[in-house]
Amino acid sequence: MENILQERYVQLENVNMTFNTKKGTFNALKDINLNIREGEFISIIGHSGCGKSTVLNLIAGLLEATSGHLFCNGREIAKPGPERAVVFQNHSLLPWLTCFENVYLAVERVFGGSETQMQLEARTYAALKLVGLSHAAEKRPHEISGGMKQRVGIARALAMEPKVLLLDEPFGALDALTRANLQDELMKIMAKNNCTTVMVTHDVDEAVLLSDRIVMMTNGPSATIGEILDVTLHKPRNRLELAENAEYNHLRGEVLHFLYERHAKKAA
Amino acid sequence: MSVIVMKKESKGRMTDTIKQQEPSPPATISVGAANDAVEEKVSVAPKQVANAFAINPRAFFEWLLPPVIGLGLMVAVWSLIAYQTQGFPGPIQTWHAAVVLFSDPFYVNGPNDQGIGWNILNSLQRVGLGFGFAALVGIPLGFIIGRFSFFSRMAAPIIGILRPVSPLAWLPIGLLVFKAANPAAIWVIFISAIWPMIINTAVGVTKVPQDYMNVAKVLNLSEWKIVTKILFPSVLPYMMTGVRLSIGVAWLVIVAAEMLTGGVGIGFWVWDEWNNLVVEHIIIAIFVVGIVGLLLEQGLLLLAKRFSYE
């Protein structure tokens, strides 16, 4: 039993998602079946509009599947909860709170019942330190850069000590250099934390660099999982070494082939 | 009868004081100060502009010219009408009356004859009370209506029917229920000031970015935390707009309400001076109402700026 739960830490079973829109019903996802191992890093990649964020929101519990079942650690996912932390694409920090207060809000909610205020504050500082933002604790979100905001978002999520970390295109809005820096940092952080992670992305390099498996989705409507690619590259990974690595380039090619040949999106 | 007699006396007193106090410097200063205050409020502008003026007097002149021309034009039209119309005082006549009036703003000559200062303060007090009660009721109500669609749909027909009603139509109800003029006037302010606050607060709540609500859901925040940490700060700018509109409406309505209810107040004073045919004072009252309204509006705008986060 223990083993099965580890193998299927997060489980999606025949998940269908239909949205009711003004123009009628829209079938976004069809027959999604996916098992995620405990501690695994999964990337979901696909063209925009293929419903990859919908999958993430379903796991987060922000959406409810039209049919099918989702489980986390053997229990059905019914609503959002702090054991499944989300890092949102647009950081979603509250602009009227400082970075510290933004993280503290999450820490207080999860550990407030069992810990003293000093312990809670220590947790908050530790989370900010983890993402290298101790110096910006008292700043408000509009006073820091986009990359820093996203780091606070990651700190907020990690401070909750989630069982599952959900990243919704976490670096999508950042410039290439900042993105690379944050990817490297995320790799280091994940090496320490080792929590189960699902990341939605449209960046092929990011997916190959960070993931254990890459879930490639077909185009919508009625999008489903087209193929799952195992990334066997050993960890820790280094982007400079990988640039020359034959397997890395092969995997990268696989994803590109899937996205731009077999499931190319027609020009809108 | 006694009221009329008293008024005649007071009028006599006024004409006396005009002769006596015409060259009195303190009066000029007090009126001048009021005008300066208005100019300052009008000139609420970003700091860079102010700095630019320090370097460039020409820019300052060009910036100042249009409003000065505008005010000048207004005075010119006024003078023209006054010149053409029998018994309509012109700017100079009104200015002299204002100098007299503002030189002694806080005299008390019986219940129906008090200084302009008392009239303004009494009106402000009514507006403050009516508006305060409206805020106490309207803002929480707006939150509830915005947060829960059940209450929103419940309130929709009530608001839809009651909001378009002219404020003064509520006065008889107030007189009936409170059996006194003053609470009835406050009631009229309350009922006319409450709608913008309810509606703007409710709209603000529905406009809270979905991202923030998602954060609340993922963190599984309590309803109290959602209200204090997310809803309230996020709604505040909308709420301040509602407050500003409400104060505007309240100040509009008070003049009309006081004309009907009497007592001490700027509205009653206008009506009283019409009965006394002191047209200068009516014109002064119009300016006073306008300037006080402008000050209230600008004050709230400044307050609103302090509460904007981005």
Task: Give the SSE layout.
The complex is a heterodimer of chains A (268) and B (310).
Chain A: H1 2-7, E1 10-21, E2 24-36, E3 41-45, H2 52-60, E4 67-72, E5 75-76, E6 84-87, H3 99-111, H4 117-130, H5 146-159, E7 164-168, H6 176-193, E8 196-201, H7 204-210, E9 213-217, E10 225-230, H8 239-242, H9 246-262
Parallel strand pairs in A: 3-8, 3-9, 6-7, 7-8
Antiparallel strand pairs in A: 1-2, 1-4, 4-5, 9-10
Chain B: H1 2-21, H2 25-42, H3 47-55, H4 57-84, H5 91-103, H6 116-147, H7 149-162, H8 171-178, H9 181-206, H10 210-219, H11 223-261, H12 266-275, H13 279-306
Helix pairs in contact in B: 1-5, 2-5, 3-4, 5-13, 6-7, 6-9, 6-11, 6-12, 8-9, 9-11, 11-12, 11-13, 12-13
Structural overview:
The complex is a heterodimer of chains A (268) and B (310). Chain A folds into two domains: 8-83 and 162-268, Rossmann fold; 93-161, no CATH class. Chain A is 38% helix and 24% strand. Chain A has nine helices and ten strands. Chain A has helices at 2-7, 52-60, 99-111, 117-130, 146-159, 176-193, 204-210, 239-242, 246-262; strands at 10-21, 24-36, 41-45, 67-72, 75-76, 84-87, 164-168, 196-201, 213-217, 225-230. In chain A, the strands form two sheets. In chain A, strands 6-7-8-3-9-10 form a six-stranded mixed beta sheet, sandwiched between helices. A four-stranded antiparallel beta sheet of chain A has the order 2-1-4-5, with helices on one face. The model of chain A has no long low-confidence stretch (mean pLDDT 88). Chain B folds into two domains: 2-103, no CATH class; 116-306, MetI-like fold. Helix content of chain B is 82%, strand content 0%. Chain B is globular and about 70 Å long. Chain A binds chain B through residues 60-62, 79-82, 84-86, 88, 90, 92, 94-97, 105-106, 109-110, 140, 142, 160, and chain B through 211-212, 214-215, 217-221, 225, 229-230, 233-234, 309-310.
